[in-house]
Amino acid sequence: MTQPGVMREASQRFDGGRRGLASGRALVSAAMPSEAEIREVVRRVVSGLTPASSAELSAVAGPTSAPAIASTTTIAIGCDHGGFPLKEHIGFRLKEQGYEVVDCGTNSAESVDYPDFALAVAQLVSVGEATCGIIIDGAGIGSAMVANKVPGVRAALCYDLSSARNSREHNHANVLTLGAGLIGPALALQITEAWLETPWAPGRHADRVDKITAIERQYLRSNA
Fold first, then answer.
1. Can you say whether the dihedral through the CA atoms of 70, 170, 78, 58 is positive or negative?
2. Which of 81, 89, 170, 172 is catalytic?
3. How high is the pLDDT of residue 68?
4. Three-state DSSP state, 163
């Protein structure tokens, strides 16, 4: 039987850890710009409403760390005609798992142009209306190219579990692209789940992701 003294000590340790966690969250919150401020900066840059200042561009980078993507967050999903069946399959499963899914189309197997739907997903992620995005076309390559043109987006084409985990952990990817013609539905679901469940692990990777952001800022300034 557990002794009363042991129970009290365990309770005190738990309460102390909880207070420490709350304090750490408060410090992070105070140091970072608000989510609304970051969304407004990205919206202005994407819309071309006004040139972004250096301070505003710094805000676009967002926090240097992020947890695994929670089931309560919003996922934008889109595809071309080649990715339509797989998009429907993955979207259905994500909703079953409790994610809020924003379907950006397409909505049939009729031929369409993948850049239109890749852009729709990437823009929602860029302005913060979606936590992350998933785009599916025949090979996944073209959609990744389109998405990575949008400020604040880090899109990764993943074709197995290792590339899915690596893109999140090392590269802080916020958009996943899949090639419906290269992988089957079962593997696609496994990749999606691994990608969503893997947290960003900053450490030594943070400086490298910061360099990606710095390149983006350079070209945003040059086009302002």
1. positive
2. 170
3. 81
4. helix
